[in-house]
Batch of 2 targets.
Target 1
Amino acid sequence: MTRPITSAVTLYLIAAVAASGATAQTVPALDRAQMDTTVRPGNDFYRFVNGGWLARTEIPADRSSYGSFNMADEQVQPRLRALVKDAVAGEAKAGSDQRKIADYYTAYLDQDAIDARGLTPLGPDLATIGKIRDRRALARYIGGSLRADVDVLNNGDLDTDHLFGLYLERDFAVPTQYAAVLMQGGLMLPDKSYYLDTSAAGTALLGKYRDHIRTMLTLAHVAGANGMADAVVALETKIAATHMDRTETWEPKNGTHRWARGDFVRLAPGLDWPGFFAAAGMAKVDTLIAWQPDAIAGLSALAAREPLAAWRALFTYHAIERRADVLPRTIEAESFAFFGTTLGGVSVQRPRSDRAIAATSAGLGFAMGRLYVERYFPQSEKLRAEKMVADIIAAFDRRIQTIDWMAPATKAEARHKLQTLRVSVGYPDVWPTYADLRVERSDAYGNAERVEARAFRSARARIGRPVNRAEWAMVPQQVNAVNLPAMNAMNFPAAILQPPFFDGTRPDVMNYGAMGAVIGHEISHSFDNLGATFDADGRLRNWWTPQDLAQFNAQADRLAAQFDTYRPFPDVAVNGRLTLAEDLADLAGLSAAYDAYRSSLGGAEAPTVDGWTGDQQFFLSFAEAWRSKIRDASLRGRLRTDGHAPPRYRALTVRNLDPWYAAFGVQSQDSLYLPPDLRVRIW
Ligand SMILES: [Zn+2]
C-alpha cells in the first residue's frame, strides 16, 4: 500500500510526519539568515523566526512536506542504510534478526524479481475472494482478513481498508488486562468525508478515484474492471455513510460499549458473526469493545444487503491496492500516481532503495531499532534526556500545585497520576523478538503478509491477558514521541533526541525551548481533554470535580476558538475541535518547559547569545522546531484528518504565554496580540 505516510492521522504523537531520507542539511540553531527580522515578531512570529528558511527552502519533489522532523530524520536515514548494508554483507546466520533484515530489504528492493513473479502472489487471495458465493463465505472472508492495524489512543491509526480492525488496548473497566476493540474500516481513501463531499471538487476527485480503481483492476488483468470500479465506489460510499467521524472516534467514552460476542447478533444484525469470529480465531473471546457501535451495526447490515458481486469487487481492488508496493511496477506506479500525486501533490516517487529501508524498518521495527541504539545512541544521551524529562515533570507538578481554580482533591489525583507516569527514553527495556516471523529473500509480498499476520496473532493472543506498561508503541528509530494515555506511559524514541530538537553542544535554554516543549507536550497529554478522562491506573473515571471540569472545558473551548480563526486557505479554516487535544498539549508543554528552564537557572538569567536574551532563545528555539513547508494538496487533506494543527499555527502557541510578550515587546496593535484575559491558561 503506498498511501503516503504523511497523510496518516496521529493524535497522541507530537506530529504526523513522513519518515524519509535525503542528504543531510544541517542548520545552526538561531541562525539569523534563517529568520526574517524585518517582520515584527508580534505580527508574524513564525515568519520572524523562519522567514529566511521558508523563502529559501524547496520541498523535495518526492515529499509532500518538509521541515524540522525531516531534518532530524535525515540524520537517521543514512544510519539505517548503513545498518541494512552491513546486514546484507554480513551473511548472518539463518533466523537471526540481521538475516531477517537483510532478506526483507533484499526482497523488497528487487523490483525485477517482483515483476517476474507478476500477479502470482495475489493468486490465493483472489481465488478466495472469487469463491464468495454466499453470506457465510462473506463473513468468513471478512473475519479471516481481520488485522491488528488500528489504534485510537496511542499512534492514532484510525483507518483500515479491511472491513473491521482489531485494536488491542488496556481494558478501561478492568485495567489489569487487555481488551479487544473492534473498529470500523473498509475505506481506501483517507476519510469518510472524501466520499460524502458533494462539491464540484469532491465529485471530481471521486471520479478520478473511480478511474484509478478501473486502471488498477485492468493492470491486474481482472475482467469487468469498468463495472467493478463503479461498484467499489458505490459500496465504499455506503460504508463511509456508516462511519463515525474522527472527532467522535477520539472520545475515550467509546471504550465503554462492551458487547458480549452474542450481543453482536442482537445489536448489529446482518453479518454472520459466529462465522466472522471463528474465521478470525476469536471464537473464544467473550467480550469486545464496539468502539463505533453504530458503524459496526451499519457495516453488518451492508454485509447482509449489498450484492456479493460488489463485495468481491471491493475485496479484489483492496487486495491489489494494499500490496501495490510489492507488486509489478505498473501497478505500483499507478498507485503512486493516485495516492502520491493526485491526493498528496507529490510528483516524484522516492527511490526504491529508500522505500525498501522504510519498509524494512516498519516490518522489523524493533530489530532495526535495537541495532540502531547499539550503534548510535550512547548511554550519556539517554541519561541527559531522562534528566530533562524529570525536570519538566517537576515543573508540571509545581504548576498543578499552584493552579488557583482547581480543587485540592482534583490536584491530588493529578499529582498521583504524574508521579506514577511511566516514562521510557530511547528504547524499550525488553526488546520484542521476531523469532516467529518467517522472512524470505525472494518473497516481498509474502513478507509483508506475514508481518501483518504476526502482529495480529500477537494482539489476539494477549486479549484478556495482563497488561505490560513497559511495551513501546513506537520504534526507537522514529523521529517522534508518544503518550500512551490508558497506560499512563510515554515513549521518547532515540531518534528525536538530536538537532533541531536536542543538541548537546548548544545552550540548554535552546534545548528546553525545542525538545523540552516536546517532552512537556507528551506529559501534558495525560491531562488534556482526553487524557484527563483516565486516572493513574488507566481506569476511565472522572476524577475532576464538576467545577474543575467546567473551568477546564471553558478554557479548552477558548483554545479551540483561537485555532478556528487560523485560515491556511480562504475557504478552509483549522478545525479547533479536531486539533484540541494537541493544541492543549502544546500549550501546557511549552508552559512547563519554560518553568523548567527558568528553575534550572536557579533565578539567574541565561547568558545572551548573539544578542538574544534567554527568554528570546527559548521562544525562538520553540518556533524553529516547527519550521515546515507542505504542499497545498497535502495540507488540504491533513486539515480534514490530522489531529495536529499545521506547524505554522502550533508555533503561535506562544501567544498564550505572558513572557513571550515581554521577550519580544509585543504590543496591543500587533496582530498576534491577545489581551491578557484572552490568553488561555490551563496548567
Ligand atoms: Zn501530541
Note: The first helix runs from residue 45 to 56.
Target 2
Amino acid sequence: MEIVARRLAAALSGERIESVMTPGINALKTFDPPLSALDGSTFRDVRRRGKLLLLEAETESHGPLTLLTHLMSAGRIMLYEKRASMKDRTSRVLVRLPGDRELRVREFGTKQAAWIKLLTLDGLEAEPSLKTLGPEAWPDPPRLEELLATPRPLHTLLRDQQVISGIGRTWVDEILHAAKLSPFKRGDDLSEREAAALREAMISELGRVLDVYEEKVELPLPEKFPKPTRVHAHQGEPCPRCETVLEAVFYEDYVMTYCPHCQTEGRILKDRRLSRLLK
Ligand SMILES: [Zn+2]
C-alpha cells in the first residue's frame, strides 16, 4: 500500500473530483457526510496507515474529508484513462476525474470485502480501524522487546495489525529468515539481541521490497504486484544464505516457509495439514 499511496499522491494531488459512485452495494460503510459531498472537491493528498489508504480531499460543503479505503485481500485500486462500463462487476468504488479518467476500486473473486468510509476529521480520529492499529513496522518501528512481550509465536504476532501494522504474511517469512528467528519462537522469549535483529530485519526487508516497487510499479498501478521474495513460498529450493533446502508449514489459506538450518536449529516443524489428516 505504501507504493500505491506514493504513486496516487503524486498523480492526484490538486486534481478535481467530479463525483464518486459505489456500484459495490456493500462497499460504502458510512452515510454522513454523503458521498455527494465530494462532488467538485479537490484531492489534497493520499496517505497510507497500516494496510489502509487515506484519500484526502478538500470540499466546499464539509471542509477536509477523507475517503478511507481497505482493499482487503482481493481488492485493487487503479487509475484509469477511461471510465468503467457499468456492467463491470468487479467495480466497487468509482472516483470520476476530469477528462474521462477514473480512480477505481475493483475486487476479484466472489466476496465483497473491500470497503470505504467517508470521514470528517473528527470521524477520522474516532475511526476504530485506525485507532486499533499498532505502530508502523516501517520505516522506524519502536523497540520490539516490550511490543512483542506476549506468549504468542512470532509469525502470528508480526501479522497482527493491532500489534504492529503494515506487514503482510508474505513479508513475515522474509523478515524472520533475515533475522534468523524461528516463526514459532514466542514474543516474550526474545533476547535483547534477537529483538534488535528482528527490528533491523523489519526495516531492511520492507525497505528492500519498497525499493523494488519504486523501480517497477508504475501508474495506472498493476493488478498484480511483483513479489520480490527469497524465502516465502520457495520451499524445496535452497536457502539463499546457507543452501539448506527450505521447508514449509501449510495452513488452510497460506504457507509459511523457513530455513531449518538458519532458523530452527535443524528442526523440521510439524506440518499442520499432514497432522490434521492423521488425526
Ligand atoms: Zn539457511
Note: The chain has nine helices and ten strands.
